[in-house]
Amino acid sequence: MKIAVITGASAGLGKEFLKQILEKYPTLDEVWIVARRVERLNELRSLDEKRVRPVPLDLLDYSSYDKLDKMFKEEKAEIRLFVNNAGFGSLGNVAEEDYTKLGNIVDLNCRALTSLSAIALRYMKKGSGMINVCSIASFCPNPRMTVYSSSKAYVNSFSQSLRFETKKDGINVLAVCPGPMETEFLSVAGITKQNSKTFATLPYCDPVKVVKNSLKACEKGRAVYTPRAFFKFYRFVSKIVPKSIMMHAAKT
Predict the structure, then answer these.
(1) Other C-beta atoms within 10 Å of 130: how many?
(2) How far apart are CA 239 and CA 246, in angstroms?
(3) Distance CA 172, CA 110 (A)
(4) Residues 89 and 189 sit within 8 Å (Cβ to Cβ)
(5) CA 103, 93, 59 angle in degrees (round to 5)?
(6) What is the C-alpha separation between 34 and 20, in angstroms, rounded?
């Protein structure tokens, strides 16, 4: 069974990935959508009841990985595309934040992505692709989003190193590094244009374009995709300017 898998698929960028993957890859037998909210997943089945398979799992629960691995084995799955989209962030100084929430950010953004990537690769073959949703926050530490930006720096580094490992097998791993988007991420993170001057002034990315170009970039074998000229420039500058200086501009 040839499938695509999307984590964090119940809303925002994950939902857009589902829409475009269904349209772009009609030869896939199924698209598995993974998230906690069962009702959201079931609603998304209406996009294609024959091919969309809801997989309700909490990726903060270690047992979820074994369950997903078991499902892949039972279905004799061949994963043609795996999208690691699950993740979240929070706005605030570390000392003032709930330490449990900060730990969950690391667990979901880093541990879950790492474990799922390792599992998925067992079911991928030449021509398969993995898309890891990263962020412009990975380019430089972001004060007031310290844990989130650090977790995304891990995702960026992990993705590029993993790509080096899998290239010999014909499997591409792409890190997608968009800027802010009008998705559920902002409300979950407690970010508004009133409490963050950075988010009030930055240009926003279009989720539809981000997904469309991410799929193209993965097919072309690229390592990193960053939308918009402004963020491409930011990515370049962050490589040459000392982080101690860059953090003044990156503060959220």
Answers:
(1) 25
(2) 10
(3) 19
(4) yes
(5) 20
(6) 16
Rounded-to-integer distance, Cα 180 and Cα 68, Å: 30
Greatest distance between any 2 Cα atoms in the chain = 53
**Local confidence band at 200 (pLDDT 50, 70, 90 cut-offs):** confident
Q: What pLDDT does 195 receive?
A: 84
- The answer, as to whether pTM is greater than 0.70, is yes
Burial-class residue 233 by CB neighbours within 10 Å (0-12, 13-18, 19+): exposed
Residue 86 region, left (φ>0) first, then alpha (ψ -120 to 50), else beta? beta
Domains and CATH numbers, the chain: 2-250 (3.40.50.720)
One-letter amino acid at 214 equals S
DSSP state of 45: G
Q: How far is CA 142 from CA 176, 194, 228, 251, 252, in A?
A: 18, 18, 20, 5, 6
Q: Name the one residue in this structure whose structure tokens are 């629960």.
A: 61
| pLDDT bracket for residue 117 (50, 70, 90) | very high
Whether the CA torsion 193, 195, 198, 201 is positive or negative: it is positive
